[in-house]
Amino acid sequence: MTQSAALSRLHTQFNGRLVIVGFGSIGQGVLPLILRHIGGLTPAKITIVTAENAGEAEALHYGIRFIVSPLTQDNYRVVLDPLLGAGDFLLNLSVDVSSVALIKIAGERGALYLDTCIEPWPGGYTNPSLPPAARSNYALRESVLALRKQRPGGATAVITHGANPGLVSHFVKQALLDIASDLALNSPEPTTRAAWAALAARVNIKVIHIAERDTQTPRVPKAVGEFVNTWSVDGFVSEGSQPAELGWGTHERQLPVDGRRHEFGCDSAIYLLRPGAATRVRSWTPCARHYHGFLITHGESISIPDYFTLRDGAQVRYRPTVHYAYHPCDSAVLSVHEFAGRNWHLQARKRILMDDIADGIDELGVLLAGHPKNAYWFGSQLSIAEARALAPYNSATSLQVTVAVLSGMIWAMENPTRGIVEPDEMDFRRNLEICLPYLGPVIGEYTEWTPLVERGELFPEDLDLTDPWQFKNVRVT
Questions:
Q1: Which of 133, 141, 200, 357 is the most buried (most CB within 10 A)?
Q2: Which uninterrupted H or E stretch holds 337?
Q3: DSSP 30
Q4: Which of 214, 242, 172 lies closest to 423, judged by CA?
Q5: What does the radius of gyration of the chain's CA atoms come to, in whole angstroms?
């Protein structure tokens, strides 16, 4: 199939209504993709419910009903009940609206559901009266998994399916298959969770970095007192203010000094007693080479290591270390430094870069390391020029998210009775089939880089030379 055919292909037919909650940069970017690739979803069957007027001109352009009504614990049922019924779709792209609450109402109404992260009500990320463990993505995920136990089956609710978390889980499976093939393991493609974990253990994947470097630059530089980003400022600030979190692998020898385990749940991850936006880690991408990224908490840092855990009874035999290593655009880095200097009080002005981006790419992928070929990066190198040519209302960053939202919606429509589902449990090939035409160059590249490269030259460092992939070596202290 040619790219032009792929960009106009109807992937599925949907006869229900669609309610979009939240219409920031991701909502605005995904709307034209939905109209392009999902048959039956005419503008008359779509309603947008949002907290502010952003995106109203786009909704008017498409002739879509646009309701400004911030959802709260007191009114969300009153607002959503008339809009949702059996066979409809609730697409949650909001901030400060409880994902658990919306998953519940969608399930009660027999509607499909998708979100890109698990959101709490306001204060759930940053309320200082809550202990750090309660403000973690680990705790939020456990709350949804508890809901799944209470409500097995039913209408499909896809959780945490944007670029990351979401698309990167599919990248991990493809990368793992690539490495296994290059090692001539002659292993059949896994079809179960246990088989995927067994393959990762056989290949000896010690570490999975979600390795992202955004080089998009604005025409107008960041000003003092302004937070600038290529996607939701509120979303980035919220997750950057949460404790740094990472999946904790079985090859790790000791917890960091400020590392803590959770006293509940699956035990796949730890957290640090510091914000993710104040914590840096080393990683590598093909264009950036080695770099320092922020250890921002994300759902995939918890769900991926959980999915790839091998157990002998109650004993964990294998699990990889997994974490995000995010170097946002340089304007966002300056914004984070200023934000931190203000003791984590947000600047007065916020700007999401879109039409004013001059150049750059978002290089987003996964780095699987520790195996016999050392490390392998697989992912997307999408430029702003390509993104603009592929879809309106998108930057390179937003398009990587919005096409993954689209693929998750289509998968849910094609699998409507699967209950609550994480990205790792979905058909990675179907999702990649939908996403690839929108991701620019998608490549895989091996590297001999390790976190020990060029270390200790200026000053001595406390390194673990027996294993370069210990988190001790990856973390920038």
A1: 200
A2: helix 330-341
A3: H
A4: 172
A5: 21
User: Which has the closest alpha carbon to 21: 60, 52, 42, 43?
Assistant: 52
Tell me the fold of 167-392+436-476. Dihydrodipicolinate Reductase; domain 2 (3.30.360)
Average pLDDT of the segment spanning 369-392: 98
Alpha helix positions (H), 81-225: 99-109, 137-150, 167-182, 193-203
Sheet strands side by side (includes 112-115): 65-68, 46-50, 18-21, 89-92, 112-115, 157-158, 420-421
Question: How many C-beta neighbours within 10 Å does residue 15 have?
Answer: 11
Largest CA distance in the chain: 65
Distance CA 388, CA 101 (A): 35
CATH topology of domain 3-158: Rossmann fold (3.40.50)
How far, in Å, CA of 141 to CA of 421, rounded?
12
Q: Which two tokens stand for residue 375?
A: 């490390």
Q: How far is C-alpha 448 from the geometric centre of its chain's CA atoms?
A: 27
- Assess contact for 65 and 49: CB atoms under 8 A: no
Q: Where are the domains of the chain?
A: 3-158, 167-392+436-476
- Three-class HEC string of 149-183: HHCCCCCCEECCCECCCEHHHHHHHHHHHHHHHHC
Q: What six digits make up the tokens of 61?
A: 């352009």
Cis amide bond preceding 165, omega within 30: yes
Per-residue pLDDT, 2: 80
Question: What single-letter amino acid sits at 226?
Answer: E
Distances (CA, A) of 24 to 13, 38, 93, 200, 402: 26, 21, 8, 37, 11
pLDDT higher than 90, residue 82 = yes
Look up the pTM and report it.
0.98
Cβ pair 251, 327 in contact under 8 A:
no
